[in-house]
Amino acid sequence: MASLWYCVAVLGLVAGVSVNADMKLDCKGGFVTLVWTDGRSQMDTSLLRLGSCFPTSLTDREAVFTVEFNDCNFRRLVTGKRLIYSNDLTYITPPNSVIPSYIDLIVCEYERPRDWYPLVYEPVFSTYGLEELVFHIGLMNADFSGPAESTRFPLGSIIAIMASVEQQTHQPLLLLIDECVAATTPELQPESALYPIIANKGCLVDSKKSRSKFEPRQKSSEIRLSLQAFKFAVGGEVFIHCSLVAWDPNGLGNTKKACHYIKDYGWELLDDPTHSSLCDCCESSCKARKTRDLVAGEHGAVQNVVLGPLTITD
User: Fold this and answer.
1) Which of 91, 110, 185, 215 has the largest CB neighbor count within 10 A?
2) pLDDT digits (tens, 9 = 90+) for 272-285
């Protein structure tokens, strides 16, 4: 896998810092080695961080990081034929230090392998009352038993999507999709053309005009979506932007739900069809009825993810 690397100073990097420091970055297939060497005795190299990671090894003048891209809160972005990983190298200055704090942007860029499946953004972060969570989203084969063998889908065929959250030692969580839109860009821009898929706090609006539906759950921390390939940007690159919500399983409400539309029946709640009245607002505007619905941090976590690129063919 061919690669190139580069570093960009983006915030707070003072001239005196860059003159006295030397940084070497080596981007490998699945990990990166960063060596920071500083010529000043007053700098404490133990205060350097690469994302959420401490140095792998230290001396008085040198900090070395050898870490995998799945660690340290690396950000991953897919743009056409490029696969880009980025993170922040930070130095938090101690009190009364003569050296200012600063941040360097670290970037590794690769050619995207042809057999690479678009499992995009696996962020790790902390939330109130929980430890680390890991979110996943990916294209699956028809029976959800493994990753999709292709990212090209004929118009009208089914695109199988599965999202999950790793719970490790956490209390049980229910994974929901708050909203999803398709776009032609990996980042949403004001001028981006959009196709709504899930809106209004968990309503699969595309199901009103297609065969799209949520599939029965296998476990609470996972959600499966069968999405009928739609007529949008046919032949071009499509990115699906979603907001995932890991939530209290006992906290379903108007704004925390998964609803799809069934012909000749109406809106149905995935997790308990007997309470499908929670989906009635899908025809209007879904608003919180309880204070607990208003603040996600108190009962769960929210993470934006991007899936793609994929191509819909005519």
Assistant:
1) 91
2) 999 999 999 999 99
Over range 242-259, report the average pLDDT. 89
Q: Which residue type, as a one-letter code, is found at position 149? A: E
Distance CA 173, CA 267 (A): 24
Enumerate residues 6+ apart whose C-beta is below 8 A from 97.
Answer: 42
Residue 155 has, within 13 A of its CA and on its CB side, a CA count of 9
The overall longest dimension of the chain from CA atoms, in Å, is 75
pLDDT of residue 80: 61
Q: What b/e sequence results for 284-308 when a residue is b if at least 16 CB atoms lie within 10 Å of its CB, and e otherwise?
A: eebeeeeeebeebeebbbebebbbb
The predicted structure's pLDDT at residue 282: 96
pLDDT digits (tens, 9 = 90+) for 138-159: 888 889 888 888 899 999 999 9
Q: What is the rounded CA–CA span in Å between residue 310 and residue 80? A: 10
What is the pLDDT at residue 105? 84
Provide the pLDDT for residue 9.
29
Q: Name the residue with tokens 């942007």.
A: 105
The number of helix segments (H) and strand segments (E) in the chain equals 1, 22
Q: How many residues does the chain have?
A: 314
| Separation of alpha carbons 99 and 102, rounded Å | 9
Over residues 36-49, the mean pLDDT reads 77
Phi-psi region of 145 (alpha: psi -120 to 50; beta: other; left: phi over 0): alpha
What pLDDT, on the 0 to 100 scale, is given for residue 129?
A: 33
**Within its chain, how far is the Cα of 47 from the centroid?**
28
Distances (CA, A) of 12 to 51, 92, 274: 16, 11, 56
Q: Give the integer Cα–Cα distance in Å for 162 and 222.
A: 7
